[in-house]
Design goal:
heterodimer, A: Glutaredoxin, 2 domains, B: alpha/beta, Glutaredoxin, Rossmann fold, Ubiquitin-like (UB roll), five-stranded mixed β-sheet, 14% strand, binds flavin mononucleotide, binds FE2/S2 (inorganic) cluster
Chain lengths: 155, 548
């Protein structure tokens, strides 16, 4: 959908801004808010661009830089931390060859640390896009990443 | 070391019909897949006779949740184990509407042991299909709303809730009936009911499981609240990660509207009520009610100055009532069964039950609903199955913003008043139980990193104070801390408690001060022994030292 259509769907009242930003980001293949879209949004909603950026940057789910097709978010909050999140982080970093906040050169994976994801029952936990994974071990991570790689290579 | 106990059992119905469909093979495959996932010590596979549903091929059931799956083939098993047991989601492809009869034996019913029986909030979770409104109605759903609208005045509802003694389950424990009466007496319209489903406190996921397991109960609670305070619109503010909850709530709203249980002229009365969903975007402070209002209005989620309280000037500056998911889930049962009944559970000061998420180095992590007033010891040894390895060391009560307590408090009853008397708080319901392998400094450092990240940045004491404390904990961890590091931390924490703009900054002090109280000796180990250091003049105020 174009920016205009999304704004029309929800209405251009300020209270719909977050929902519109969610939709904009979700439909972007690189999962980010690009400047062009935001400029049009600013026009449509009659909100200064600086205000929109100021609002969006407050929330950790929004990004202004392109991200990988698979967004890996590892929980760093205490319950996961105590049950092994730091080791999980290292394993993924070494497997993908990237650090927190970076994207693999093939544009497949982005790695982010995050606050509690609300799936602490299976700590240590992470989410890849909308999928939750818990009780993580090194082995399990290899399996998960290999599965994704395999799926992608078949395309 | 204690023997690990099973968390769940999978019942495989083996009878003449199912054997033909390959029940034995499915059972063998289940055992191999479960052990492949390393879950053998938590999940037992048990053969039983017919489970109930017939002509459904191989049928299996899960205890204690009570789900039943049919037409299971060997090929399904790997996926089933991955989806249901590893990720904890229902394996929809094979899910049957039937449920296992859960053991409810009222003759031996003990109100202090309500894990699976007689629950208030989680009563329907795992018993009914959350996506089927008929099942909710079948267990008495929406009856409370009907009674409220047809037989009671708004004032009567508020009195009933007040008499029940229900207190907010979002952390602060504010009496719910009283809160409703504030919004009810406002003249301005429209008014709003908001369900706070932001649930960002690390270690807490009770609201998610309530919404996933029994979405209609929340809608019903909201509608009753709307009737009581005179609101016709409700919003559920839910965090963006909770996709399944969002999906189920959306379906629940649609279904309820179709049956006329939400929308215009509910139950043929002139009461209208609609519910909408607002999705958050990843910010812990947005769980604070005024930050939540800003976020709902499309602004940065920074807290507002109180007063005015939301009851007076909330969403779009209109009278608004904000309640937690669990609080609202208590409403329909109270209307249906009365305040007297509700008061049978829990304590005089804190009636009812509390849903906790129990985590850490314990044998059975998970979700429990127990009466208020139960002790930490009972939770750890009766419900959590004891410490999984090593010895009990400490517990953090109520999430990362909660108190860090030592073994000496294990026998304290968990209710608002008892905790308040010793200067602590019940918090959101997360109970993180730790053994001696966990260092207090590591726990505090990790928690402080969370606050550094989640501080909204608006007031400088919180923005800078959290970072300063984080650096202090880093030094303590490396054992290079200054001789007066602990005094500095304490002063900073007290300063935050007094001067931070919002409750987030103020709550940062909670874990720090309680850890200083119970684990000072351990924290002192991080101080560098022979550092040459000119001590600050202690009779001056800190501010003078810094700026002189
Ligand atoms: C930093 C912070 C985060 C909070 N997060 C939540 C939350 O995630 N869910 C919630 O229900 N209440 C949260 N609260 C408490 C709310 O401000 C408010 O007290 C609560 O929603 C009121 O509902 P209740 O009366 O039903 O408890 C938070 C408070 C603070 C200070
Ligand atoms: S603490 Fe990691 S998901 Fe909650």
């Amino acid at each position: 959908m174009t920016v205009k259509e999304i704004v029309k769907r929800y209405g251009n009242k300020r209270e719909n801004l977050l929902q519109i930003l969610h939709d904009l980001q979700n439909q972007s293949p690189q999962k980010y808010l690009n400047k062009k879209d935001l400029e049009i949004l600013s026009e449509e909603m009659k909100i200064p661009l600086s205000d929109i950026v100021g609002t969006a940057s407050f929330y950790s789910m929004f990004s202004f830089t392109p991200r990988g097709k698979y967004l890996i978010r590892i929980c760093e909050s205490p319950p996961c931390h105590l049950l092994g999140a730091p080791a999980i982080f290292k394993v993924i970093e070494s497997k993908l060859g990237i650090k927190e906040g970076e994207t693999t050169p093939d544009g497949l994976f982005t790695l982010e640390g995050t606050s509690c994801l609300g799936i602490c029952g299976v700590a240590p936990a992470m989410m890849i896009n909308e999928e939750a994974y818990g009780n993580l071990t090194e082995e399990k991570i290899s399996q998960i990443l290999d599965q994704i790689r395999e799926k992608e290579s078949k395309r | 070391m204690m023997v690990k106990k099973n968390i769940a059992q999978i019942l495989v119905g083996i009878d003449s019909n199912t054997v033909l469909s390959g029940a034995r093979k499915v059972k063998t495959k289940l055992i191999t897949e479960i052990s492949k996932q390393g879950l053998s010590d938590q999940i037992a596979v048990i053969e039983t006779g017919s489970i109930g549903p017939v002509n459904k091929g191989v049928v299996i059931g899960i205890y204690p949740t009570g789900e039943i799956y049919g037409n299971m083939s060997e090929e399904d098993v790997a996926e089933f184990v991955q989806e249901r047991l590893v990720k904890g989601r229902p394996y929809k492809k094979r899910l049957l509407p039937e449920r296992l009869p859960l053991e409810v034996d009222l003759s031996t019913y003990d109100p202090r042991r309500t894990q699976y029986v007689g629950r208030i909030v989680l009563d329907n979770c795992g018993r009914i299909n959350p996506e089927d409104i008929e099942e909710y109605i079948g267990v008495g759903g929406y009856e409370a709303l009907g009674i409220a609208l047809k037989e009671k005045t708004p004032q009567e509802i508020i009195s009933l809730v007040r008499d029940s003694g229900l207190r907010g389950r979002g952390g602060a424990g504010f009496p719910t009936g009283l809160k409703w009466s504030f919004a009810a007496r406002e003249k301005e319209t429209p008014k709003y009911v908001i369900c706070n489903a932001d649930e960002g406190e690390p270690g807490t996921f009770k609201d998610r499981l309530i919404m996933e397991g029994d979405p209609h109960k929340i809608l019903e609670g909201m509608a009753i609240c709307g009737y009581a305070i005179g609101a016709n619109t409700g919003y559920i503010y839910i965090r963006g990660e909770y996709q399944l909850s969002i999906q189920r709530l959306k379906k629940a709203i649609e279904d309820a509207e179709k049956l006329g249980l939400l929308g215009q002229n509910i139950f043929g009365t002139d009461f209208n009520f609609e519910v909408k969903i607002k999705i958050g975007a990843g910010s812990y402070v947005c769980g604070e009610e005024t930050a939540l209002l800003n976020s709902m209005e499309g602004f940065r989620g920074e807290p507002r100055l109180k007063p005015p309280y939301p009851a007076e000037s909330g969403f779009l500056s209109k009278p608004t009532n904000v309640n937690n998911v669990e609080t609202l889930a208590n409403v329909a049962p109270i209307i249906l069964k009365g305040a007297e009944w509700f008061r049978k559970f829990g304590t005089e000061d804190s009636p009812g039950t509390k849903v906790y998420t129990i985590l850490g180095q314990i044998n059975r992590p998970g979700l429990i609903e127990v009466p208020m007033g139960i002790t930490l010891r009972e939770i750890i040894y009766d419900y959590a199955g004891g410490i999984s390895t090593g010895e009990f060391k400490m517990v953090q009560l109520g999430g990362t913003a909660g108190d860090i307590l030592s073994a000496e408090l294990l026998d304290l009853p968990l209710d608002y008043k008892s905790l308040q008397e010793v200067g602590h708080n019940l918090g959101s319901g997360a109970i993180l139980i730790m053994n001696e392998s966990v260092s207090v400094v590591d726990l505090l450092k990790c928690g402080m990193k969370f606050f550094v990240h989640e501080s909204c940045g608006r007031c400088s004491v919180c923005r800078i104070g959290t970072r300063q404390m984080y650096e202090s904990f880093q030094r303590l961890e490396k054992k290079i801390a200054y001789p007066d590091e602990l005094e500095n931390i304490e002063e900073l924490a007290k300063g935050l408690k007094l001067t931070a703009f919002c409750p987030l900054g103020q709550s940062v002090a909670t874990p720090v001060l309680s850890a200083l109280k119970y684990f000072k000796a351990e924290l002192s180990e991080g101080i560098k022994p022979h550092k040459i250091y000119k001590p600050a003049v202690r009779n001056q105020s800190r501010a003078e030292i810094i700026y002189s």
